[in-house]
Design goal:
Elements: E1 20-22, E2 26-27, E3 33-39, E4 52-56, E5 62-67, E6 74-76, E7 81-82, E8 88-94, E9 105-109, E10 122-126, E11 129-135, E12 141-147, E13 156-163, E14 170-175, E15 185-191
Antiparallel strand pairs: 1-3, 2-3, 3-4, 4-5, 6-8, 7-8, 8-9, 10-11, 11-14, 12-13, 12-15
Length: 192
């Protein structure tokens, strides 16, 4: 939905092929959205399917990453969170067929992200400034640092180049006037 209230349907779930009863979405550090459905998918181990795990781009390109078959997890109940390691974590209502004394599960999804989370993707100069971008992970604090050597004790915080509680998208920070100084190395100090 746009800020002015224009609604666009990006995907209509079909049930068996891609799941139904979707839960919340989370935006990954690659800019795409990841989510689960509580039911649907191809498994016959659950009454109405055991759910799916999917990715959808902001423009609406949908990919069913996994039809859950209940061998490890079934019926995810809430959306994912993305950890500082780039993996997605979630919870499920049931675990492993047959469902005997199983009342839930915590699971991890590893998806190759392009670009990977927390790896500097672009360093460029714009006039007198050095601009650095990184695919961020939600809720982390990022501080841009610079050093004239790779000695671990020489890193200095770039003033005004920090973001607290990232939203989990491409993060761009600027070292104002950095291109006029001596050549340096850049990194992000990440505090989960």
């Amino acid at each position: 939905m746009t800020p002015t209230g224009v609604l666009t349907n990006l995907h209509l779930f079909a049930g068996v092929t891609d799941g139904h009863t979707p839960t919340a979405l989370v935006q990954g550090s690659d800019g795409n959205f990841y989510g689960t459905t509580r039911q649907g998918g191809g498994s016959t181990h659950c009454f109405d399917g055991c759910g799916t795990i999917f990715r959808i781009t902001p423009s609406g390109t949908f990919t069913n990453l996994c039809s859950i078959d209940a061998t490890n997890v079934a019926s995810p109940v809430v959306g994912f969170v993305q950890g500082s390691d780039g993996n997605f974590y979630g919870t499920a209502f049931l675990v492993s067929y047959p469902f005997v004394d199983n009342i839930g599960d915590i699971f991890k999804l590893t998806v190759p992200l392009n670009p990977p989370a927390n790896q500097v993707s672009v360093i460029q100069t714009t006039g007198n400034d050095v601009v650095v971008s990184i695919p961020s992970v939600a809720t982390e604090t990022y501080q841009l640092q610079v050093s004239n050597s790779l000695n671990p004790t020489n890193w200095v915080n770039v003033p005004g180049a920090a973001v607290t509680n990232c939203i989990g998208a491409l993060l761009t920070l600027t070292n104002s006037g950095g291109a006029t100084g001596p050549q340096g190395f850049y990194r992000f100090d990440i505090i989960p």
